[in-house]
Specification:
4 copies of one chain form a homotetramer. Chain A is about 40% helix and about 20% strand. With about 350 residues, chain A is α/β, with parallel strands linked by helices.
Chain lengths: ~350, ~350, ~350, ~350
């Protein structure tokens, strides 16, 4: 059976695992105060072109979103997102659980449009009753989005401009950042660091066992972040584990390189599906591919490959999602194509 | 200047005020543990036909909604509402502030449709990923709604049936309950008590200085409610103040009678507006009336009457809201008509 | 039966009530945006000698404490208090409910000692592990304290100095502020405004039906306080009710004068008890008086007067509390003495 | 340099690490819904003698405490603990952050006394004002405690009896459970499962890279725990990582055996310190050893070994803590003794 359910089905990239094994019996201080974490933070700052950035390692995505967003907001503030945003649907209300409303904007294949954002903010401040409403306190976007789509550089610059005009921090969820960067024609990590106030570089789905690297070019937005992270239960005793992993991922371009493989394999899979006559539901350039399939076809493919049923898209039809990972091999795709 | 901004612009009905004055220097225990509160609770239980109901007095509407909803839900649960619901827009995120997501269903002139509700709940439980999502834990409706509309008895029965099928408590916000009851052709207070698990009888907008009476026919849904209310900062030291007011309101049908006046005056105002050629935005039978007016006409009327600009409804047009209250006099409406 | 259970057993001072009656049928905007609230705020600013102070009216004490403290703190911060502080015992966990730890310092007859405070803060910052601990983010004191005692001007100045050295806002709970000011030999309202960053002037226990006036000389500490108050369910629709009451209380020194009566009556009661041979448990100069009584004596007195049993103070002995109010009459005390 | 700072300075036991390596490239479902997690849960249920227990894997200790406690409590409830409890001091207010007060009972070398507990609960329910206070909703204990001490079987049975009399769930923090079980003369894992309602078996400090296994013999106390865990940000995408580790730890008694080593080494260190004339601050039988040392002696030892300064214990003296781990070797202790 071939597996295209998700990009967190395997463990870590072998080079990452090897470093965990090599360092296993060393003794270091806890809570990320070790040398490996310091070195990884340095490599990340360098890759981002931000020598002064705050870099902090957390464990998983939902945790990172809830912790960062709660750190950015005051009690009377909420976070804006595309309606399809992960925080609005599949995080079990973690943001609300720390007291903040999720303010949904219309999503365009998973993306927030700068014009929508500007209108929302203008309308809000023009509304005489806005004192009775949740203040917009941050914008959440993801790169790639839930639908595998990417913001162009121009789109990101527009969002950043609107945010800064209204003094709203821009936060990017980078759970699959490596796949986004590998697929984008124009957006680089340095662009993201320049345009976002806070973002995270996803490890869990991009070659690590687990771990997400929060980066902020405006550390004053997240005061006492160490304590805040601890309070959210998001602090690892053996914080070095993320340091070691991110050091490996940010050495010799490993992160970018392995994510590039996933994107290539995904595009091969997509092409094969299209040639077979299936219709992409969204034109995704990244490692998640969505198709609208007759249920009978989905049934047929499920005999040799796993994937996720996403939602209905008409009578007897479903949106299905295929996901490749850094570990998807040529042979996996070839076998898939041959059985298709 | 005539005032139709809202129904909380005056103090209390003179009979209510008189009782506050008469009892002012009496000494009673605090926190609603006095005789007046007990008597008022008894009158309310009688009017509801529920001898065993929990009756508890709170101060205001947002507070009551947040306190009751937080009391009904477990941490992993959210509250469903029409998207236009007051808790979803004009309560500054009070529900989220106590940790719960507001789950918006499509509103139909402010109302939740039982078929939508059933579909939402079915889809939720059929979704393989629902363990990652906020559990629907209660349904919030209001009577009348934000748009002044009313559920018919049949609609309420349908909602109640769906809720009970899915074991979801049904909670009704009755900030303007008196106006709703006065206007409804078929729904009585006893029906509400029979069909809802928790509801509140609004005092602030319906003749009291302030105060809302929470009623629950299933007190086990709100365990240790006294302490819960205290924790929410919703407990009045001089709890008798609400007891005295609700005793007056529930003596000799005062509550129903004075609310009936508001509805009659609102319908006269509506008829005058329609005769003048203005288009109601919603066909409201209660004390809130909405029209879609050219901005120039709104401007003109604002010379002699206050009202609220609700939202745009086309180029150079706005939805405006006129509200009457228990205290709106015949002469107010006549003056309005004469100037219209 | 004479009543000395508490100072919130009556309604409002007749002059306050009279103003509520006189203005009852006027129509004003809601939410404290009316003229009466503006006028009351002006009178309070004048009495405090702080023309630029933020003044905001809330409904009750627990609500005010939770709302202000939550407004002052960031998520990773807690509030320090004497262990006997009201927020630490009798507010049903309202502060924790909004996410903040209450950090208890040793109380000295209800008071926080500046030296203890300084030691606590020094120790905290010297502790290598303080990043894993709740940051002290505000100091809560009350005037008078739970035990009826008062800070001297020098004590207040010391606390204020320590707080400002550590950049910790000083917040004073003034539920009974009028009684404290009436009894203090040296502390004035202007001193409090000068030494505290935020405090509230209690209305509920000091002549109003209800209402507490929050005053802050550093409004930047409570940004968007209107929305924050709304979110806490602490906003009154008919906000003018507090404005009208505080205007009455701050006209012609009514507040100070009526509270002075309570203190005088309390001291007469105390003297009578002492002459009868009963031992004050605390030497309180204010309207709350505590005695350590044999249970048999408490039983005897309870035949003609109500009071609160506070705690045991030895075998068959209890601490009891007698409270006078602005409404306690000469004849009440005389009758009490005659029956003692 | 020898390291006795803590028991989380190394990675995982080699057998644990080996299993992570062997399974690294396998593909499994996420969120703990894999075969390894199922197998590990089975082994734990067997070791506990509880075929029907809920077993759920979380990442770290603070997270587990906050998640479980928040799951056990209703909004109006708090958690009791010894004043020295980890949740009361070094978890950055994580419990309060989810809305619950930590109710501190006097600690006896880190332990809660059943008689104190009973008195606290009786006094609470006898207090007329308890409706205004936080309800005690669970008891938190740890085994071993913060001071390395252990409850005897009789003490545990007494606590359990009091808890069940008052219908209060008993929750045990087992961050160092392996060390406690290895050192206890009479308490077994089956006893713990029998006497506690919920507990966790610590992995992070006892041979795993990370991971804590929550066990509840009354799963109805933690409804929808999967969603609750997700909401707390405590769900690992690659949940199998804990399954694989706990399977290794619960195969061939690895958990007990390696923890036994730590205890033996700790007792050798303790004996050497005592023979050298140093005074244990607490008589701990487990892998944490506390001494009251003159600062000059602490300074001297710090030349060849790391340890934690815990608190002052007199002028120029400090309580210091030495901790051994599953990985402390004979040679480490011999070197320590030789340099002492």
């Amino acid at each position: 059976m071939l597996h295209f359910d998700s990009d967190y089905m395997e463990g870590a990239h072998p080079k990452v695992m090897q470093r965990l094994v090599e360092t296993n019996l060393e003794q270091t201080p806890g809570y990320g105060l070790d040398e490996y974490s310091a070195k990884a933070a340095g490599l990340i700052r360098e890759a981002c072109g931000c020598p002064g950035a705050l870099v902090h390692f957390l464990v998983g995505g939902t945790q990172t979103n809830a912790t960062v967003i709660d750190g950015l907001l005051r009690r009377y503030e909420g976070v804006m997102t595309a309606d399809s945003g992960h925080i609005n649907s599949h995080e079990a209300g973690a943001v609300e659980s720390s007291g903040h409303k999720v303010l949904a904007l219309p999503g365009h294949q998973g993306k927030v449009d700068a014009a929508d954002l500007e209108r929302y903010l203008s309308d809000f401040y023009n509304d005489e009753n806005h004192g009775h409403m949740v203040q917009p306190g941050a914008l959440y976007i993801s790169f790639p989005t839930e639908w595998g789509t990417l913001y162009s550089l121009e789109e990101l610059e527009s969002l950043s401009r609107v945010c800064h005009t209204f003094k709203i921090p821009l936060y990017m969820d980078g759970a699959r950042l490596g796949y986004g960067l590998a697929a984008s024609p124009d957006v680089t990590l340095k662009d993201i660091a320049r345009l976002c106030d806070v973002f995270y570089i996803g490890g869990t789905k991009c070659g690590a066992l687990f771990g997400e690297a929060v980066v902020s070019t405006r550390p004053e937005l997240l005061p006492h972040f160490f304590t805040h992270v601890k309070q959210h239960g998001a602090m690892m005793a053996k914080g070095r584990l993320q340091g070691i992993q991110f050091e490996a991922l940010f050495t010799d371009n490993l992160y970018t390189e392995i994510c590039g493989n996933a994107v290539r394999q995904a595009l091969r899979l997509k092409q094969a599906m299209v040639e077979k006559g299936y219709r992409p539901y969204v034109d995704s350039p990244t490692n998640q591919q969505f198709f609208c399939l007759p249920d009978s076809e989905a049934e047929r493919i499920s005999k040799f490959a796993t994937f996720e049923i996403w939602a209905p898209c008409g009578p007897m039809q479903s949106i299905v999602r295929f996901v490749t990972s850094w570990n998807t091999g040529d042979s996996d795709i070839e076998e898939f194509i041959s059985k298709l």
